[in-house]
Automatic annotation (TrEMBL):
Organism: Candidatus Nitrohelix vancouverensis
Source organism superkingdom: Bacteria
CDD domains: ASKHA_NBD_PilM
Coiled coil segments of this chain: 418-462
Key words, A-Z: Coiled coil
PANTHER family membership: CELL DIVISION PROTEIN FTSA-RELATED, ETHANOLAMINE UTILIZATION PROTEIN EUTJ
Protein name in the entry: Pilus assembly protein PilM
Length: 587
């Protein structure tokens, strides 16, 4: 299928690069516009090692990873389009009275003040006017808006710059998928399209109709869940038990996918493919059930009887048998995104199996390169390149020629001064010899001073041994930053309390047992707003992000309960957690 040339790409033979930085992998696609469309000339995909993903300050490591990926795939371009996603990104539609564009942004923030929980004054905001509509004789704008918490985009830009690249624009994943779909397909009027992007840790579902992004949902289930289902022990006929670790499970998943119900083969270890199917089937069946629930919820909310098209993308789509399962389970037209099949690939040397496995993962990156953030661009002005900024940066260097001329004329004067300085140097040498003699006479007092310094150090060590004199055993700034990073847009924290918590029995000493050591504990209380299912998913994401944080050793749920009626205007959950931080070594 030949790709349609988007209106924004109008320079023939000009490259464009989309860089998709995910939670577990990084994808890059470089396209070049041609007279009749465009082609993918280079691409790359690399997994993010767990040790990098768990680092607090991981931008330099991720930048180095991207730099190496560009080098290995011979991608020379330095200007890229990127995306942001996650629970600190809020996408919503609004209907606002028609007004001057310089007033629209403030009106958008006012309209969203009750739905967006982070600080809108500091957030990065972008909008796209979908169309004008008339309501009761007045003209209104239908506006697609995106809000991103203030620290997200600077973090992504830092990664890109650490890789030696320049960001040209920032958009959100559904916009990239949407742009790619419009480039390869003709969408009929009034059709409802659902995009399902199946990632490693999470699957995102979006619904689009009439150039509007109407609804989105995030499902905490992805390719890693399928891999995890294959890890464990297997009883092999006439052989000992076979143990499959995570690395081997990933290979089995990519090789066999979801085997057919009557599959007769075996893995290298001798595991029947029917057993592989039994392990994977509950996970992918749950995914399909979540897709159906999302579709039914959308139809009920927007009073429509049908979702006409389902576009699936992401690494999970490349799983063998996944498309057949979706086709059998969902009553609608399903189209797989595979950039390596749907686009020209020029001189790229790929087998059909390689393209089938890799292609779906590149959809978002290809959409970034195709759309070039034309609808939604969140890149703040301070990060954008301009000739004026370049001139200001280079201004100090404009005086170099004049400086060199001045230095040449000044050098003759310096030679004369050097002769004077040489004479003074000889005098100073004589003075130094005299001072060295006096230094020998001062060795006695110096030894006394050294003895006093040793006594001071001993007194300081004794002081540190007294109760209450040691420094805090944890890095509170790190803890607060990690909690802030994990806090989603619909999460509100009401109390954070720090204490030394004993985890032994209170009557241990009475029974003659040695009391257990105290541990530092942070009691965290708050609320998560949303309908029942949405609030539970947000709580699960919140806990998952905290558990991944390098700042905490243990996370304990003390209680969760529905928000009491009348306390807030929105439904939700009240939660209480105990966080056990990693203690730093104060020895």
């Amino acid at each position: 299928m030949k790709l349609q040339l988007p209106s924004k790409i109008n320079k023939i033979n000009q490259p464009s690069i989309g860089l998709d930085i995910g939670f577990n992998s990084i994808k890059v696609v470089e396209i070049i516009s041609r007279e009749k469309g465009f082609e993918i000339v280079r691409f790359g995909l690399t997994e993010i090692p767990a040790e990098i993903a768990q680092e607090k300050k991981r931008a330099p490591a991720l930048g180095a990873l991207i730099r190496r990926m560009f080098s290995e795939n011979n991608i020379k371009g330095k200007k890229v389009y990127i995306s942001v996603s996650g629970h600190n990104v809020v996408i919503r539609t609004a209907v606002l009275p028609k007004m001057p564009l310089d007033e629209l942004k403030d009106a958008i923030k006012w309209n969203a003040r009750e739905e967006v929980l982070f600080d809108l004054e500091k957030a990065d905001i972008a909008y796209h006017i979908v169309k004008e509509t008339e309501i009761d004789g007045s003209i209104f704008y239908e506006v697609l808006t995106v809000f991103v918490r203030e620290d997200v985009i600077p973090f992504m830009v830092d990664i890109v710059r650490q890789a030696g690249l320049q960001p040209l624009g920032v958009t959100v994943v559904p916009m990239a998928l949407w742009d790619y779909d419009l480039a390869v397909n003709t969408v009929k009027p009034h059709q409802v399209t659902s995009y399902i992007d199946m990632g490693s840790e999470r699957t995102r579902v979006y619904f689009v109709s009439e150039s509007q992004l109407l609804f989105s949902r995030e499902i905490p289930n992805g390719g890693k869940n399928i891999t995890a289902s294959l890890v464990g022990d297997y009883e092999i006929e006439n052989r000992d038990t076979v143990t499959v670790d995570e690395v081997r499970a990933e290979t089995i998943k990519k090789t066999f996918g979801l085997p057919a119900e009557d599959a007769a083969g075996k893995t290298e270890e001798g595991i029947p493919l029917t057993v592989i199917r039994e392990r994977i089937l509950p996970v992918v069946t749950k995914q399909v059930e979540e897709f159906n629930r999302s579709i039914e919820y959308f139809k009920n909310k927007y009073k429509t009887d049908k979702v006409h098209r389902l576009i699936i993308s992401g690494g999970g789509v490349g799983l063998k048998g996944m498309y057949q399962l979706l086709d059998q389970s969902l009553d609608m037209e399903i189209d797989r995104c595979n950039t390596l099949f749907q686009a020209k690939t020029g001189s790229l040397e790929l087998t059909k199996e390689q393209a089938k496995m890799i292609g779906p993962s590149l959809t978002a990156a290809a959409g970034l390169a195709v759309g070039q953030c034309s609808k939604i661009d969140l890149l703040p002005e301070r990060f954008k390149f301009s000739v004026k900024k370049l001139l200001i940066k280079l201004a100090p260097f404009a005086f170099i020629p004049f400086l060199l001329a001045g230095m040449a004329s000044y050098s003759m004067q310096l030679r004369e001064e050097i002769k004077v300085d040489e004479k003074k140097l000889e005098e100073n040498k004589a003075l130094l010899a005299s001072l060295q003699n006096k230094l020998g006479e001062m060795q006695g007092p110096k030894k006394e001073i050294d003895g006093l310094e040793n006594k001071i150090q001993n007194l300081k060590r004794e002081k540190r041994s007294f109760p209450g004199s040691s420094s805090a055993p944890v890095d509170f700034w790190e803890i607060l930053e990690e909690i802030a990073m994990a806090t989603g847009s619909n999460v509100s924290l009401s109390q954070l309390h720090y204490t030394d918590a004993s985890f032994g029995k209170e009557d241990d000493e009475e029974e003659g047992l040695a009391p257990q050591l105290n541990r530092l504990m942070i009691r965290l209380q708050g609320n998560i707003f949303g309908e029942d299912l949405g609030a539970q998913v947000s709580l699960r994401n919140f806990l998952e992000d905290l558990r991944k944080s390098p700042a905490f050793k243990e996370i304990h749920i003390i209680k969760t309960e529905p928000v009491k009626d009348g306390r807030f205007t929105s439904p939700g959950l009240t939660f209480e957690l105990n966080l056990i931080p990693h203690e730093r070594n104060t020895a």
